[in-house]
Write a structure and sequence with these properties.
Layout (H helix, E strand, L loop, with lengths): L5 H6 L15 H7 L1 H11 L14 H5 L24 E6 L2 E8 L7 E10 L1 H9 L8 E5 L13 H9 L7 E4 L10 E7 L16 E5 L4 E5 L2 H6 L11 H9 L20
Parallel strand pairs: 3-4, 4-5, 5-6
Antiparallel strand pairs: 1-2, 2-6, 3-7, 7-8
């Protein structure tokens, strides 16, 4: 299963739980409504689940078959009246993400965003800019060198996205990162951009002012810039000085588009 297989799965799976940050209720409310068993039973009834063994020794359908719905609950909605008819994310490709990226769709209704890039090497620099009031409506915040190898480890950009919402920019600013975003993230966010900056991906070549386009309908994430010319003179950023497990991870980790899994090193004298 590859990254592109997730897009059609998301497209045909409705959002049936009305949960924050885009919805009205919290996880505690969902538990009181009937919990994950109720959510599973809803999807099972719509034919959107396959039965499979679980760690309890019972099958998935056996586990959710005894779901109990709290009378009057409004958290888990049926598939005939979902919160949204499509899933909470989409897979985009384009000149900025040749190997793909994950765009969050839950929590906002935007299908397109075009704006100038504001580029930051790392989460801390982006957070400081937001706090200083340097980000304007319409901007595209680009946070790079946070990918599996560059982090190393793919931190989530929750602090930055929360700060954008706090500044009243959640509905007018987009974000692009080779790191991750949280399930609690609100707004138009593209994460897992691959190849990551540490591998010399296009995100490493973006400059302030480059126009970036999100287009959900065409599943595209593009940048209006001559990246080929910049690539010819690109000088990689010196890698983080890390040791131990982190250094081993950074040396062996694959692209986010391949699951950010680690692979054994090539044999001496062999090819990678």
């Amino acid at each position: 299963m590859g990254i592109d297989d997730f897009d059609p799965l998301s497209a045909r799976t409705p959002v049936v739980a009305d949960l924050k940050p885009g919805g009205r209720f919290t996880a505690v409310d969902m538990h009181r409504a009937g919990g994950e068993r109720l959510l599973g039973a809803c999807l099972m009834g719509a034919g959107l689940l396959r039965d499979t063994p679980t760690v309890t020794g019972r099958t998935l359908f056996e586990e959710i078959g005894d779901a109990r719905e709290t009378p009057g609950q409004q958290v888990v909605r049926g598939t005939t009246s979902p919160v949204k008819p499509r899933g909470g994310f989409a897979i985009l490709r384009g000149s900025l993400a040749p190997e793909g990226c994950v765009l969050k769709l839950a929590g906002h209704d935007r299908d397109r965003h075009v704006g100038p890039a504001r580029v930051f090497d790392g989460e801390e620099a982006a957070f400081a800019a937001v706090q200083a009031g340097s980000i304007q409506p319409g901007d595209v915040v680009v946070i790079r060198y946070e990918g599996p190898r560059g982090g190393p480890g793919m931190r989530e950009m929750l602090a930055v996205t929360a700060a954008l919402v706090g500044r009243g920019l959640g509905d007018t600013v987009a974000l692009v990162t080779d790191g991750r975003f949280s399930g609690a993230t609100y707004g138009m966010m593209a994460g897992h951009v691959a190849p990551e900056a540490e591998r010399g991906g296009p995100i490493a070549l973006i400059e302030d002012g480059d126009v970036i386009t999100f287009d959900v309908a065409s599943r595209r994430l593009d940048v209006d810039a001559d990246l080929s010319a910049r690539a010819a003179s690109f000088v990689p950023r010196p890698p983080h000085r890390v040791g131990g497990v982190l250094a081993k991870y950074a040396a062996l980790v694959s692209s986010a588009s391949e699951g950010a899994i680690t692979r054994p090193p090539p044999p001496p004298g062999g090819s990678s």
